[in-house]
Amino acid sequence: MQALKEQLEALWPVAMNIGLNILWALLAFFVTWVAVKLVRRSVLKLGDRGVDETLIPVLETLAVWGTWAIGAMVVLDIFGANTTSLVALLGAAGLAIGFALKDTLACIAAGFVLLGLRPFRVGETIQFGSTLGTVRKVGLFITEMDTVDGLRVSAPNDKVWGETITNFTRNSSRRIEIIASIAYGDDIETGMKVLRNLVAEEPRLLEDPEPQYAVCALADSSVNLHLRAWAKTDDYWDVHWDFMKKLKPALEAEGLSIPFPQRELHIINSVEASHKETKSQ
Questions:
Q1: How many other CB atoms are found less than 10 A from the CB of residue 249?
Q2: What quaternary arrangement does the UniProt entry report (predicted)?
């Protein structure tokens, strides 16, 4: 019993030290958890202070993981771990992981490039490759978009950056292209007058740049009249659809027609042709 008592007395300081370290570690974990909540809330409020919404998801991720990393280092230091050696070990391990996850790191690098150069922002409509949609989020690894038919697309950042990016909503105005086809027997000037009247009736079309009118093609079955006019980007599709709806009745009201595709066929009777050739000889 005396030996057991001596062992317990010897272990008591160690147990007390371990217990205190655990308590301090739990306290550090709790403080870190609270700090993460506060940091996340503060980052999410940056949008109200004028920070671009495109940057907020990435800033949130970096801030949260950075706070957890600091908390982990504090906990390890409480238990007496050599944090300097640990950082060096993590650095060496990071190189090995980097080679293994080079595609993932390429996504991260592309994400920082997209955030730095900002070829698009959250809420803008873009197209890269065959993907067309509205940007909802730009993260460290993927870009999330909603397509025009209501699908959510998650594309790796390196795939987005590796394509030509077309931004449909960055500029304040867009050019509308209208083709009006009339028959070869119709008067071209009358067709041009119809286009000018429709432009004059549409207040959403811009006066600068001025609308352009031209004969763009003498097609197989029609004469194609071309209108180029500018509208605000937000009004683009509404103006385009309304213009196309009014075009057909306006052409018909002036006696113009929209011809169907047609082709002339010249049939030569080979027997008669050879008989005529024989007579001529």
A1: 8
A2: Homoheptamer.
How many residues are recorded in the chain?
A: 281
Structural domains of the chain in order of their starting residue, each with its CATH number = 2-100 (1.10.287.1260), 119-167 (2.30.30.60), 173-253 (3.30.70.100)
Q: Give the residue among 221, 227, 233, 231 at the shortest CA–CA distance from 250.
A: 227
pLDDT at 254: 93
R_g over Cα of the chain: 36
Segments in the chain below pLDDT 50 = 100
pTM: predicted TM-score of the whole model, two decimal places: 0.62
